[in-house]
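Translate sequence into structure tokens.
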Amino acid sequence: MADVLPFDDRDGFIWFDGETVPWRDAKVHVLTHGLHYGSCVFEGERVYGGKVFKLTEHSERLVKSGDILGMKVPYSVAQINAATDAIVKANGIVDGYVRPVAWRGAEMMGVSAQSSRIHVAIAVWTWPSYWAPEARMRGIRLNISQWRRPHPETAPTAAKAAGLYMICTMSKHKAESEGYEDSLMLDYRGQVAEATGANIFFVMDGELHTPLADCFLDGITRQTVIALARQRGVKVVERAIFPEEMARASECFLTGTAAEVTPVREIGSHSFTPGELTRALINDYETAVHS
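Result follows.
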């Protein structure tokens, strides 16, 4: 769903360093360290019926991501939760998307920025569910990216860090230019990793298989769907998956805050038929987020 409103010119409010400020006043300087050197972490959250789904888990991950990058987020999880709830209410959001972000400021310009202030902002905007059930079940098409998720000794892969998404943007842009909706990324070993902003699952012989999250984020939606599948008595296998194994899969879907549970009908030369288990987990997830 394309949003025609530019994100720097909207009505509403943003929580910024402990204050609620008018949307258009939430600005940073051009020499902000986070812009130049990637010292920035963030979260993506969804509001359903005025309530943020798994808010505490997201706030905890934001703080953890900051710690991994050596950035001490200057607010507690409880304070971030309270600020999130307040800004959702201030904007009158019923169904929407939340973007908390923490970054190093402009006090120092250079690779080293030990004395730069850590800023935090939380923005939220309307984002209703845009998938009609039957449209969703047609599934999306992915190509296979030339870029790979890095080794955890070469990048802070356990953090939701802004810099790690550069290759995701490059991959998704290329996919869209070729007529696909997204791109499958392999990891540094050539194993299946994830899409550009969502985790991936395959149905193989009635079991649910998903790559072991050892060099990419173990998504909160991913964890939720694994739990939902196990509640149904479905065997979930987290393991190394090689690209040629996709030929064994009957169904495939993506999971993520934005993607929710999105069926896939094609990855490169491999085809899938969104089916019974995918539909069941879509319904289970819908129930979970609205409960």
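Note: Residues 133-289 form a domain with the D-amino Acid Aminotransferase; Chain A, domain 2 fold (CATH 3.20.10.10).
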